[in-house]
Amino acid sequence: MINVLFLCTHNSARSILAEALLNDLGGGRFRGYSAGSSPRPNQQPNPLAIRALAGAGISTDGLRSKSWEEFSAPDAPVMTLVITVCDNAAGEVCPVWPGHPATAHWGYADPSETEGAEEARLDAFRHTMRAMRSRIERLVSLPVDGLGASEIEKSARALEREEFRE
Prior knowledge:
Order of helices and strands: EHEHEHEHH
Number of domains: 1
Structural class: alpha/beta
CATH topology: Rossmann fold
Oligomer: single chain
CATH class: Alpha Beta
Shape: globular
Number of strands: 4
């Protein structure tokens, strides 16, 4: 099983979308998790992220905002790959993860910063979700079983340079 942790600052939008998408697309080979470097007290997933996922037929069961400290604990699942999905988290000093996983950065604009009518804001979440889906589909199609951390990191970092086109 390839465990992938998606990191963002608050763990309410982008990382939540990525976790749910990977769990939907992972085919039993991949397991997605998400966390934030500094989730706000009582942080919850953004309701528009949940709506976008549900509208795409992706399960939102069990999604919750959590701190990355949860995944640096001794009893935490061992990650194979850690991917930052926002620029703030990419620039922060991350904890030392058990197992020393591969790392990559897949930057996405924050859909929760979109202003305007609710439908326009929801469209921003859908756009981000489609961009993530494109990379995650390519990730799960890679022959990563049996690869070491450096080969997985190289593959994940190659995907960060790929552009999303609708």
